[in-house]
Amino acid sequence: MFSQRAVRKKFTGDIKSFNPAKGYGFITVPKVWELMRCDVHFQLSEVYDVDAEKVSEKVRVGSKCTFWCNLDRSGRPQAKVVRITWAPERPPEPVPKPLPKGEEFKYRGVIKSFHEDTGYGFISCKETFARFNRDVFLHHKQLNGFKVNDAVKFQIFVDQTKGQPKAISLEAADPEDEVQSPQATSEQAASTTQETATPPEDESAKLEAEVEETQDLWEDGWTRYRVEEGSEEFWWWREQTEEYFLESESDDWSKFRDQKSNKEYWWHKSGSRCFWASET
Predict the structure, then answer these.
(1) Are 214 and 256 in contact (CB under 8 A)?
(2) N or C, fewer C-beta in 10 Å, the chain?
(3) Cα(99)–Cα(183) distance, integer angstroms
């Protein structure tokens, strides 16, 4: 069906994404997807019969269009002469989702660890430890200027797939708040019955335990593509879940470098997903 020469066939599809600031997007076409396992890239400059003031109204996710298709030198489909045939009404503004019932409670704890290179850490808290038998996961976007050993109050949401508590809405704990971790409590109890103090836990062992706790977060199957020939813009695609994101505009994914291996990886804002950039 496709060759490196221009395809003399007209297609119909739906706009899957569009970035007005960058001036490009992607069109999904079932037949193209079936054959090539990818969407069709288009530039705003190839959209016809739409006035500049109508772009945000017409060129948007869900709009139906027709176009002619070429393949670039890398074999990726590119839409030409795009014409919008129908555009959906604008959806109402989303209503913020409330926290799950019972999670409005403010817990108190101490930031036990945080690693700048990985972008996450953990909070010690007696109440949550008794409930989940583990420390509370802390993502860098929730850090809010706090550092290790700071006493904090926080809310949690629970990753239902793993049962893992994750901290949100951090604020400084009041001086009178009790914020000892379960580990600290057990160490104090042990010190009253033992003459010889137990040496502190090795820091590398702590890090290994935390890394082990996140092993089930890593995903495979992500592939990196250049937006178009000669461009320095790239996007990622995962066939298993039919997900993609653009590196330059992703609000959900952030890139970090692992200090130990010096390899780059992408971390999802949910705190429950990540993948190695170098293994694609």
Answers:
(1) no
(2) N
(3) 28
Pairing assessment for the beta strands 7-19 and 24-28 based on DSSP bridges: antiparallel
Place of tokens 């813009």: 233
Q: How far apart are CA 13 and CA 64, in angstroms?
A: 6
**Rounded CA separation 168/105 (Å):** 12
Please return the burial class of 123, using the count of CB atoms within 10 Å of its CB with bins 0-12, 13-18 and 19+.
buried
Rg for the chain (alpha carbons), in Å?
A: 25
Helix and strand numbers (H, E) in the chain are 5, 17
* Coil, strand or helix at 103: coil
The token duo for 25 is 């997007």
- Which one, of 40, 14, 21, 12, lies nearest residue 225 by Cα? 40
CA end-to-end span of the chain: 28
